[in-house]
Amino acid sequence: MVFWAVVGLVLVRGVGSILIDPTARRAPPAEHAATAWPDAEARAFAERFASTYLDVAPKRPRAHQRQVASFLTEGLSDQAAAVLPPRGPGARVALATVAREVPLGGSRARFTVATTSTTGTVRYLTVPVARDPTGGLSVDGLPSLAPPPAKGTTPVAESTALSGPDAPAIRDVVGRFLSAYVSGRGPSTLSYFLAPGTRLVQMPPGLNLLSVGQVSRDPHPESGAGVAVAVAVRVKDLATGATYPLSYRLRVVRRDRWYVSSVAGGPSA
Fold first, then answer.
1. How far is 193 from 200, CA to CA, in rounded Å?
2. Cβ–Cβ under 8 Å, residues 128 and 148
3. Burial of 168 (0-12, 13-18, 19+ CB in 10 A)
4. Residue 10 has pLDDT above 60, yes or no
5. How far apart are CA 114 and CA 122, in angstroms?
6. Within 13 Å of residue 265, how many CA atoms lie on the same side as its CB?
7. Are 236 and 207 in contact (CB under 8 A)?
8. How many helical (H) and strand (E) elements, i.e. helices and strands, does the chain have?
9. Which of 139, 156, 187, 258 is most buried, judging by how many CB atoms fall within 10 Å of its CB?
10. pLDDT in tens, 137-168
11. Integer Cα distance of 202 and 189 in angstroms
């Protein structure tokens, strides 16, 4: 019985192999799409290295050396260890963000990372990063400290107060909308002010709109239909009590009345 079962299996598989198109038996492996360089992974690697390199604890120099060495290509470990005093306040990095990047070709790039310490000190560290043929990343040279960007001298854009027969209605709708939007009112309230089809993410609670100032034509509007306006407001953070002067840039459209169709910088739902 076992013999005839094996014979039957061979016959069935043999017939199947005859009926199946040989070209469909095995699909060729899909080619991996080429990724742009530098990529997000390399930027994150540079940020992590900068945080580790500048985050030093005088009481743990050996541990810091091992952490730094974990990012380095072979041969750099002995050169890249920071010399720490036996006593000192140390430095803790609270934030690290890539500010500049320069592709060098051959899967190499230099990233300048802006770091902010817990005491508020800002340092810019330029980090050379390379990717090997297997996809691995390493810091392939000693970093360097760099200056921050120069302070700009761009003049303030002149704003023109909104005028014309529609100005009072627009000022009214944007003022009432911002009062609801900034304070974190829900969709049921915001929907009255929004143009059909417009959806906005609700603001978190904890803010209060104190006043609405001048409503001007936005000097640098994004593309879109309707009228782009900049609205000067004062907003209070209820958690800290601080009051901030802000400017919201809105776009309004006219249907049966004026509606808000977008808020610059705000995500859509």
1. 11
2. no
3. exposed
4. no
5. 7
6. 7
7. yes
8. 6, 10
9. 139
10. 999 999 999 999 999 988 887 778 899 999 99
11. 11
